[in-house]
Amino acid sequence: MLKVPPMLIQRKKTHYHILESGATLILGYNGYVWISANVQNVDKSEGGFTEDLSKIPIENRNVCTRLRNCILILAQCNMLLSDTSVTYAYEESSKYDVHELLNPEAMVDVSLLTHQRLARSM
């Protein structure tokens, strides 16, 4: 879970998004952002709440970490957060390792490329 300024969350009809990367993203109007890993084989036949304590694979953790860093980059650059902008930033960040994304050069590069893609898509 992340906290960003609420003014950066783009107002949309839905705030629950399943991204192409397989992760689930919830953009709350209050500024809270929830990222969850890809959940497969969910058994809903029992009803009620069951806690899944299984380990999350490293690939899913890397996806969630990359999404988190992309959201922090967009928030640092005061760009609106939507499913589209987060997806674009995620795709543009693929040339960097996850731990390199919070370096200033990488942040500027990812934010500029994301801004250009958003401008072209409008």
Characterize the structure shown.
The protein has 122 residues and is of the alpha+beta class. It has one domain. Helix 1 crosses helix 2 and helix 2 crosses helix 3. It contains three helices and four strands, in the order ββββααα. The protein has a four-stranded antiparallel sheet with strand order 1-4-3-2, covered by helices on one side. The mean pLDDT is 90.
Number of helices: 3
Strand content: 5-15%
How would you classify the helix and strand content by structural class? Answer: alpha+beta
Number of discrete domains: 1
Could you give a short account of the major beta sheet?
4 strands, antiparallel
Give the uncertain stretches in residue-range form: none
* Oligomeric status: single chain
Q: Write the element-wise H/E pattern from the N-terminal end onward.
A: EEEEHHH
How many β-strands, per DSSP? 4
Please state the overall shape, judged from the principal axes of the Cα atoms: globular
* Helix content estimate: 25-40%
Radius of gyration from the alpha-carbon trace, in angstroms: 15 Å
Q: Describe the strand arrangement of the main beta sheet, using strand numbers.
A: 1-4-3-2
Span of the ends, CA to CA: 29 Å
Mean pLDDT figure: 90
Domain K Homology: 1-39
Keywords: Exonuclease, Hydrolase, Nuclease
Pfam families: KH_6 (PF15985)
GO molecular function: exonuclease activity; RNA binding
